[in-house]
Write a structure and sequence with these properties.
The chain is of the alpha/beta class. It has two domains: 147 residues, Rossmann fold, CATH 3.40.50; 98 residues, 2-Layer Sandwich (Hypothetical Protein, Haloacid Dehalogenase-like Hydrolase, Chain: A, domain 2), CATH 3.30.1240.10. Strand 12, helix 8 and strand 13 form a beta-alpha-beta unit. It is globular and about 55 Å long. One of its GO terms (molecular function) is hydrolase activity.
Length: 265
């Protein structure tokens, strides 16, 4: 058991899971179990909805996580923070998007639905890259009667600026050429991490995070020991304290060994 326990946050897509196949490298899996064996606190920090990485949580034995890009925080199975999108603003955005033929997907804590038939090519193209095996169902007015933690807006690059100008109460973060996350203004994984750290006693020097995408930037800026994957976007590497190897090249294991959290084999 280590005397200096650390907390390590891991993004999922492009960090724990490979970019193309969305598979968990065996070296990463073994590294996670070794961290836990040594007494470290391991947490997931993802833009995914709660119900979209349940199998991964079970496989790795992780019950502390931040999801919906910071909107929902769970510590050892207990929800300690949950924030929702403003319904009135979301309804206005929905109407605006429908007039432009831009679909919207809504996610609560159990499922995701869309306001258009779910065979829309933008939805199919972007969601399929996550290799989840599930797609949103079509349910009219779902967003009006449910607590929505995150939305997805579907359009092409260059069509998103009008949304930023019109709906200043939201942040729009592109994760795919055809899709953006819809979040309350100022929310991020960093906000979720702050909420979790209020419950825990880890000094700054014992806080670590691994990520690769635009929604990881605030997280890597907040956590002193921010690690960008070798496959990360240039903007993410620019804010990281260290850049490890690609996820498919044992990047998790290499990074943890470089940081001294795991012994070199």
């Amino acid at each position: 058991m280590v005397t200096d326990r650390s907390i390590i946050f891991f993004d999922i897509d492009g960090t724990l899971l490979t970019e193309e196949e969305r598979t968990l490298p065996e070296s990463a899996k073994k590294a996670i179990f070794k961290l836990k064996e040594l007494g470290h606190e391991v947490a997931i920090s993802t833009g995914r909805a709660k119900f979209l990485f349940e199998d991964l949580r079970k496989e790795l034995g992780i019950d502390t996580y931040i999801c919906y890009n910071g909107q929902y925080v769970v510590f050892r199975g207990e929800v300690i923070f949950a924030n929702t999108l403003n319904k009135e603003s979301l309804n206005k955005l929905t109407t605006f998007a429908l007039n432009k033929n831009h679909p919207v997907v809504y996610m609560n804590d159990k499922k995701m639905t869309t306001n258009v038939p779910n065979d829309h090519p933008y939805i199919e193209e972007s969601i399929s890259t996550l290799k989840l095996g599930v797609f949103p169902t079509h349910e009219q007015d779902f967003e009006k009667y449910n607590e929505i933690y995150q939305g997805l807006l579907f359009n092409t690059e260059g069509e998103d600026e009008i949304y930023r100008e019109t709906f200043s109460e939201f942040d729009f973060i592109r994760w795919h050429p055809k899709s953006l996350d819809i979040l309350p203004k100022g929310i991020s994984k960093a906000i979720g991490i702050k909420k979790l750290l209020e419950y825990l006693d880890f000094p700054a020097e014992r806080q670590y995070a691994f990520g690769d995408a635009l929604n990881d930037i605030e997280m890597l800026q907040l956590v002193p020991n921010g690690v960008a994957m070798g496959n990360a976007l240039p903007e993410v590497k620019d804010v990281a304290a260290f850049v490890t190897k690609d996820v498919s090249d044992d990047g998790i294991l290499y990074g943890l060994q470089h940081l001294g959290l795991l012994p070199e084999e």
